[in-house]
Amino acid sequence: MQETAHWLTLDPQVHLLAAAATVSGTQRLLANDPGTAIEGGQVPGMCAILDHTTRP
User: Fold this and answer.
1) In angstroms, rounded to a whole number, what is the distance separating the alpha carbons of residues 19 and 4?
2) 32 class by beta-carbon count within 10 Å (0-12 exposed, 13-18 middle, 19+ buried)
3) What is the pLDDT at residue 2?
4) Concatenated DSSP letters for 9-55?
5) What is the rounded distance in angstroms from the CA atom of residue 42 to the CA atom of residue 11?
6) From CA 21, how far away is CA 29, in angstroms rounded?
7) For labeling, which of 11, 22, 37, 49 is most exposed (least CB within 10 Å)?
8) Which residues contact 38 (CB under 8 A, 6 or more apart)?
């Protein structure tokens, strides 16, 4: 992260890392077991994380 986002301070770097991890994690959840991910509330949980992460 330091090499690609050296112009960001630590807080925005953490937010960027959390957003990227959430987006890739949601894709994996949906690809591996979409029924459980949607019905089990995992996707809304990931969306809540993404929403919180992207707030200014």
Assistant:
1) 15
2) exposed
3) 53
4) -HHHHHHHHHHHHHHHHHHHHHHH-HHHHHHTTHHHHHHHHHHHHT-
5) 26
6) 12
7) 11
8) 30
Type of residue at 50: L
Contact between 53 and 18 under an 8 Å Cβ cutoff? The reply is yes
Give tens-digit pLDDT for 3-54. Answer: 665 777 888 888 888 888 888 888 888 899 888 888 888 888 888 888 888 8
Q: 1-28 burial by CB neighbour count: b if 16+ within 10 A, else e?
A: eeeeeeeeeeeebebbeeeeebeeebee
